[in-house]
Specification:
Layout (H helix, E strand, L loop, with lengths): L17 H4 L7 E11 L1 H12 L2 H5 L3 E4 L9 E6 L6 E11 L8 E9 L5 E11 L4 E12 L2 H5 L1 H25 L4
Antiparallel strand pairs: 1-7, 2-3, 3-4, 4-5, 5-6, 6-7
Helix pairs in contact: 2-5
Length: 184
């Protein structure tokens, strides 16, 4: 179990909650990726359940240790990628959550989380699934960030490549959630 004391710091960036509206603070790089996942409420609900249960991060290959089994406002999570001693921890705090509605379209569900001290970046990332009025289901990933210190800034090309790679893994994970859902 993770000691969440380390992750209990304060959010360390401006514009907290900006990914919910699609805004980013000045001076921060931003990402917007969208992928069509299929059609229908069943697909939408499978992906929403996976996003709100941390499954999207797990399917992207990240190790996830959260203080809540389901995404809730204020929850702390430490995810990381890499192997053994080369695993890079990334502590975050959930800053907004949108639960799926009981019925009706269009609607969306998802959450955004922000970086805490110890994360290699400063900023926010969000994961949202939407079903539009035509029944099409889309994944939307938004992020804004900048390196947390000079060391990560010096690795700019590698850092951006890692972000693109993890984002592509999120999209792959959402596609499997759309097809299979989560294990019960």
């Amino acid at each position: 179990m993770t000691d969440f004391g380390q992750a209990a710091g304060k959010l360390d960036y401006p514009g907290v909650g900006g990914t919910e509206q699609g805004s980013a603070p000045e001076g921060y790089g931003h990402v917007l990726e969208e992928a069509r996942l299929g059609t229908g409420l069943d697909v939408y609900r499978r992906v929403a359940d996976g996003i709100l249960g941390w499954e999207l991060q797990r399917r992207a290959g990240l190790r996830v240790q959260a203080d809540s089994p389901r995404v809730v406002p204020g929850a702390h999570v430490v995810s990381g990628f890499g192997v053994g001693p080369f695993r890079l921890p990334a502590p975050c705090q959930v800053v907004w959550v949108r639960e799926p509605a009981a019925e009706g379209v269009p609607q969306s569900a998802g959450f955004g989380y922000g970086t805490l001290p110890g994360h290699p970046a400063r900023g926010e990332e969000s994961f949202e699934v939407e079903i539009n009025g035509h029944g099409e289901v889309w994944l939307r990933i938004r992020a804004f960030s900048r390196p947390a210190n000079w060391f990560y800034a010096a690795g700019g090309v590698v850092t951006r490549a890692a972000q693109r790679y993890v984002t592509s893994r999120y999209i792959e994970g959402a596609r499997t959630l759309a097809a299979e859902g989560t294990a019960q």
